[in-house]
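The methods section describes the discrete structure representation at length, but only in general terms. The central task, working out the structure tokens from the amino acid sequence alone, is never made concrete. Nothing conveys this as quickly as seeing an actual entry. For illustration, here is how one protein appears when written out as sequence plus structure tokens:
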Amino acid sequence: MTDGLGPLAARVPEALRGSSAYHVPKPPRVIAKLDANELPYGLPAQLRSPLAAALSEVPLERYPDPQATGLRAVVAKQLAVAGEQIVFGNGSDELIAMLCNAFAGPILYPTPTFVYYKLAAIARGLPTIEVDLRADFTLDEDAVASAIFLHRPSVVFLALPNNPTGTLWRTDFALELAARHRDTVIVSDEAYVAYAGVTNLPQLAAHPNLVVMRTLSKIGLAGLRVGFTISSPAIAHVLEKVRPPYNLSSLDQRAAELVLEHGAEWCAARAADVVTERARLAAALSAAGHEVFPSEANLLLVRFADAAATYAKLFAAGVSVRAFGATGALASCLRITVGTPAETDALLAALQA
């Protein structure tokens, strides 16, 4: 909307005028926050105490390390890649925007998928190419291949697994596209790799136009807003040209470095707990007669007979989930983050009330 802008409204790109800001309603009281695909467990005391001590020593009067040297070394060691292959961003959103800036041109992605692929392209005046998923939210590989051949996009985003559906498409398809279209950046968005257990990272050397994207937001550090890409040094060099200076705060860098270095096992264990709880929640929802789509992420997409009424019922009970409006492929669905066992119980009780 451009109401109230007066003559400035003409300065807003036409594609942006019809879009809406990202907004998630919050119930007056929240007993189960299941709307943002976060890890539901807070850091344990054995990590919080040294984290507090480390952060108290961060010199806030100085700008952050522009190269995130300490964090870069930890990530490079854990992933067995060179530091020059890594580019850090303020969450995946900034990395997506950087990819659009660096390789400006048509942006292709399946739909429905992560909303920021579209938002980043529109904000930069770039053409978007949307390829519909099948009715069961699996990927139509032939349609994607045809769209790439027809439109010659600069960047293709593939969420593996996909948000908001949780579907894990065939990961080798990204590699096949990268081999077939060397003039296109193929992004393997692996935000949920901790829950899916599969990655295209080992294939980077064979595919110089492949980019693997990761985030710490899904493994217990959503408040930090730290993400990174791993790619060929050549692509990383281009992305560094459009990366805002000092884009990761000193506090974010130090916190991420410490938790990754000393809490990786804890993060992995809690992700495994979520995978176990995902199976329990899916089984319970299916037994109640709801259609639950297969998921390899920390979320479930569920089709209800009346999604709007179900959402309102949950909202009133203090259970926050994600709705998608009255139209489109997701109109009859709700996306439910997999929470703690207690949050699962609260959700199921609210549905049965």
